[in-house]
Amino acid sequence: MDSHPPAHVPGPVHPGRPQVVRDSLTILRKQIWYALLFFALVVAGVAVWTFRQVPLYEATASIIIDPQPPRVFSQLREVVELGTGSFWANKEYYETQYKVLASRDLAEKVVEALQLESSPSFLGLERIRDPQERLAAQERANPVSIVRGGLAVQPVQDSRVVRLVYRHPVPAHAQEVVNTLAKVYQKANIEYRSVATVGATRDLNTQFRELKKKLEEAEDRLAQFKQKNGIIVANVEAQLGIITEELQSLSATISNLLSERERLEARLARIRGMNLDQDWGSLDEAFASPLLTQLKQTYLRLSQEKIELSIDLMEKHPRVRTAEEQLALVKKSIDGEVRGIVAGMERNLAALQDTESAHRARLRRIEAEARRLEALNTEFTRLTREAEENRNLYEMVVTRLRETSLTGQIEVNNIRLLDLALLPKAPSTPRTTLNLTMAILLGLLGGIAFAFLVEFLDRSIRTREDVEALGIPFLGIAPDVAESERKRSGSPDLYVADHPRSSAAECVRLVRTNLLFALPGREVRKLVVTSASPKEGKTHTALNLAISMALSNQKTLLIDSDMRRPRLNKVFGTSEAAGLSNLCVGKAEIDDVVQKTAIENLFLLPSGPIPPNPAELLQTEQFLGTLDAISRKFDKLIFDSPPIMAVADPLILSRFVDGVILVVRSGVSSRDVVFRGVQALSDVQARVLGAVLNGVDITKPYYGRYYQYYRRGYGQESHDADPGTPEVDD
To answer: Whole-prediction pTM value?
Structure first.
């Protein structure tokens, strides 16, 4: 056997996204159906929503709300303040009036004034012809809700003007409802003032008599309390202020201690409920220990190394045992660090509990002292306040009685009608043109964005750039064959042999030519054809490559080294009674198992009976001797190998051949899976000659810039209009 170190092992790079922005038009052509689907859904949805809306007519009335009504007597105060003075008071007043305009009370008055509860056109019942059904529907209808539902109160910015907008399917109802609402609101504002003034006068007369008696009694009680207790008010209030500040500070401290204790208890409870043998991902978050993080990373690294050693070495190998011992030591260090952290947390919890108990005891003592002082001060303050309030009220009632007698006779209002609504001529909604225009713009922009999003989320390999981004040389493509062409061929797998001048055959010959320059100064004689995962076309690629080499007058042996799911014997219709597995155990001769095919210079070595341990057979001295003997009999050896990520067979074979060809299925193979497959080959120092992009549909517009010469069918037979490869095989 010819053993040699690989001249070049491609270093896999992390799979990156192609620079899609560089070719935006190509991406849009590639994902055009997603963009059109998004556009159609948006436009159709907006169109359906727009045309299903009931046309509404909009009537607008304008009123002015002044902050203050006109004052006839500048020195007198109104019983009811219809307006206010300061900025914030004005803001609250206006916000309140907006709510009043949209209130149920005003809506009920509008319904009553216009008798809307008996108007079928307003209630939307004019389509009901049956009188009994219309009457029943009229009883169920809620005209107040209809009035409130169609009303919009719109303050005009930087002004005192308020627009009242009402929408209704009937123009006349829209006009009369909004105008009536403005008038009802203006009238209700005056009525509110008048009713309040009359009631205030009556109440003031009653209160005048009561307050005079209460004032005398309150002054007597205050004098008796001072004489009995000898209170120095200033000292009591000062002491209460100091105690109050201390109480606030202590309460805040206890609150912080409680929060810290609960946080620590929750953390300890979480840690005690963890299973450290399973919850590795929670170690860093639970303990926040740099040392523990470092130990965890060391443990994971050693675990990975042990797994890799176990694959290549026996379980009892010294290096495997050394790795296990190192893992045990790191695990013990992790357990010790965890116990130390938990013990420290428990000590901190005990200290927090003791501190909290001490602060709570002091809090109780201070609260008792505050209650004692407050009881004395509260009674004194209450009596003082009671006497002052009665005196103030008495004086105020006397003054207000004089003012009320004057202001109650004057009608003033701070609500003015500016413009009444006109009869609307055209519906305001729906805005069909605007809605559809916005839908078209949104659909176009959203469709483009959605197309780019689909492209960004697509992790499959489709082009040469995608292959080369993984650090793999690009050997060529294998385009898809049209269904009609596959049916015309006697055997889909032998399409290249049956149509040597087709575009598919040209693609295979290009791959064969590129292999001649894969190893400068060295002939490539032994090749392993594999893929990262099943169903990517490795068997078909190996078969076509072998056919191409055989047609170039090279004695080629196609070896079915997939001793788990062999398929080549079915392609050629040969026997699988004896083959590679027999040679590996020394129970057959080469000439007895190698079979000649119908293609000149092409020979087949079937896999033979399926063994229980294919990977072990490929590492025996018998296999190496057989490989050396076969190499002397044939010019080219093509191994059809199982997928890399499924079994270890291709990794073993790659060490005994001149190079490996990786088959990648366009639009199917995942960048991440192929990347891991290249990594696996790199780990065993396999020589990856390059990748073949299989299943390329060169009729798609986004492949045109790469493979236009294939699409034009340069040099193909007249009946082979559609280039490609047959269906994907494993």
So the answer is: 0.47
